[in-house]
Design brief:
mainly beta; Immunoglobulin-like; 16-stranded parallel β-sheet; 9-stranded parallel β-sheet; elongated
Length: 464
């Protein structure tokens, strides 16, 4: 057991035992060392033409391959031979981290091909690969359960299904994964699932294309759990630009955003879907069903997510987004725990919707250093508003403050603040949601400030 160092400037006649005496190729390292437990890769490009690397790289059990940096270590298969960049066959434990896999061109699994294996990939980019005879341009899984964390799968393609990822009888776990700009000639531009039950958490699926169905995700006889997933700007020529489900599939979508996909956000055939605490473009009425059922649970909204810069792929939430604090930390469906987050796993009173937890909360307070001369509640701005408005108030002295929104019948809609405050000027953002995270209806609302014995009310108009 031991470690081996490899560098494009190394030599396979070296010992590889130190970084000052590195080998040059991965396949020689695995051959020369009886059982290396760690291979360290220095920055540089490893390919058949530059370092005489042999592809596919086939890690052995209990091996870790660690690159110096994700963008600096490039394993480039060359795109001229029918091979994957990396292949796992009957591997129970292997770890790949801090590198980029590119240039694969295989029948299945152009970038990574997993069969009966459970590798862990962390801080890995899989890009520019192709499956010319079938599925999984970036990653193909068969009877496998890989774990992907902080992985980017982009710009891959295939001649059949799963431009980014294709899973067959597999159960991968994806956390903080970005799947973008992939394409499939038929189904599943981003992901294609068959008899698979993956777990996706904090995953962004954007800008993928399918020649038929499931621009973002194609689901066939599978039951994935999608939590805090953003599915946006995907395209399908036929059905379900965001998600397409068929043939007895049962996905669950919690704390997620489906927005601005080219046609239907969700299309179902002979399947059912559970949606809760999610922002769906067009709402429930936009979902296409054919002998299918939609379980439209609590907490769902249909409101502009207010991304920071969606045109340039930044799907973080702006301050005032209706998706901030609009998710749930706990959700059970038919005795199956789908969401169970502790308070240190999110910011604010509840998790956000979508893949990117914002540093903002529903109520964002700004304190100025100038001390007002009197109490005051200023008119909100803008007014009328949609979806957010700013409410300002002034305190000349420390006071116990409650700031509450009521509807025209005098019923409490949202308590924005209930706390002790020092003297100062304050601003509070209201995103047009009630206490349950549901967008309020168009109409007149009243905001009342109570600070000690002082009370003042303003009228606000919300337009949808």
């Amino acid at each position: 057991m031991g470690s081996t160092s490899i560098s494009p400037d190394g030599d396979d006649s070296n010992s590889g035992l130190t970084r000052s005496d590195p080998l040059r190729t991965i396949h020689v390292a695995m051959y020369k060392m009886q059982a290396p437990n760690t291979i360290y890769l220095a920055n540089g490009t490893y390919s058949s033409s530059t370092t005489r690397e042999y592809f596919p790289i086939e890690p052995i059990n209990n091996l870790s391959i660690i690159g110096e940096s994700e963008s600096g270590v490039i394993l480039a298969a060359g795109n001229h031979s029918p091979i994957s960049v990396m292949k796992f066959i009957n591997i129970d434990h292997a770890t790949i981290s801090n590198l980029t896999l590119t240039g694969g061109n295989a029948s299945d699994g152009g970038g990574v091909h997993c069969t009966n294996s459970s590798p862990t990939l962390t801080n890995v980019t899989i890009t520019g690969n192709y499956a010319h005879g079938g599925s999984g341009g970036g990653l193909r899984c068969t009877n496998s359960s890989p774990i992907l964390t902080n992985v980017t799968i982009s710009g891959n393609g295939c001649s059949y299904s799963g431009g980014g990822i294709c899973c067959l009888s597999s159960h991968p776990i994806l956390n903080n994964v970005t799947i973008t700009g992939n394409s499939a000639s038929t189904n599943g531009g981003g992901i294609s699932l068959h008899f698979s039950n993956p777990i996706l958490e904090n995953v962004t699926i954007s800008g993928n294309r399918a020649g038929r169905s499931g621009g973002g995700v194609n689901i066939n006889r599978s039951s994935p759990a999608l939590t805090n997933v953003t599915i946006i700007d995907n395209y399908a020529k036929e059905n379900g630009s965001g998600i397409y489900c068929n043939d007895n599939s049962h996905p669950a979508l919690i704390n997620s955003i489906l927005w601005n996909n080219s046609s239907e956000e969700v299309s179902l055939t002979s399947s059912w879907i559970n949606i809760a605490y999610s922002n769906i473009d067009g709402g429930q009425d936009s979902i296409i069903t054919d002998y299918a059922t939609v379980y439209w649970d609590e907490g769902n909204i249909d409101a502009d997510p207010l991304f920071v810069d969606s045109d340039n792929g930044n799907y973080s939430l702006q301050v005032g987004s209706p998706c901030i604090d609009a998710g749930t930390a706990w959700f059970v469906w038919e005795d199956d725990m789908l969401v169970n987050l502790s308070s240190d796993e999110y910011v604010g009173s509840a998790p956000d919707m979508g893949a990117h937890e914002s540093s903002y909360t529903t109520v964002s307070v700004v304190k100025e250093h100038i001390i007002p001369e009197s109490f005051g509640l200023l008119q909100n701005y803008p007014n009328p508003f949609n979806p957010t408005t700013t409410i300002s108030y002034e305190l000349p002295e420390q006071a116990s403050v409650t700031l509450t929104v009521y509807d025209i019948r005098g019923q409490e809609v949202m308590r924005l603040q209930d706390t002790e405050k020092p003297p100062g000027n304050f601003q509070v953002l209201w995103n047009g949601l009630d206490q349950s995270g549901i967008p309020v209806s168009t109409g007149v609302y009243f905001c009342r400030l109570t600070a000690g014995s002082y009370t003042q009310t303003i009228k606000m108009v919300y337009l949808r």
